[in-house]
Amino acid sequence: MSSIPHLAAPRRITASNLPLGESSTATSYSEPGVEVLVDNLPLEPILGGALMRARVASSKKVPTSNDGHGNLPLDEVPGMGIVLPGGLNLYYLDIAPNSEGVMHRTTSTDYLVVLHGTLSLLTPPGPFDMIDGQGTYGEPVETRCTSGDVVLQRGIMHA
Predict the structure, then answer these.
(1) Angle value at C-alpha 78, between 75 and 83, nearest 5 degrees
(2) pLDDT in tens, 13-36
(3) Cβ distance 51 to 99 under 8 Å?
(4) Which residues does 121 contact at the CB level (< 8 Å), separation at least 6?
């Protein structure tokens, strides 16, 4: 049995302002130095390994804060770790070739950047009803997204 091919784990590069401090040389024109941290993000398999996810950033409130430096903590994300109500949740997602998702809705605004390959975005063709947990939308519409495309999903039903 062969393993599912995946992209390499991403690196997170965080650039933060350093405190000015109480230096006698600091003036009203002084600007802070910059700290740049580079770390390799661990990949976590989800949905049986068809998807690999790495958490990049999360914040319980928007706008986020630029205060602090060093290894900044990630806020907890409830449930499956997808939507952080009222906040920001950014993660890297590697989808295995020929894998299929299920039609679902997230209440968040999602930004998808296709780095490599082709992604099929499936959406209902028009308004529909939900009866016994099933959508009455019929055959979904397929939009093919290729390398370099950016998809902006605004709380939509999709797969």
Answers:
(1) 85
(2) 999 999 887 666 778 888 889 999
(3) yes
(4) 142, 143, 144, 145, 151, 158
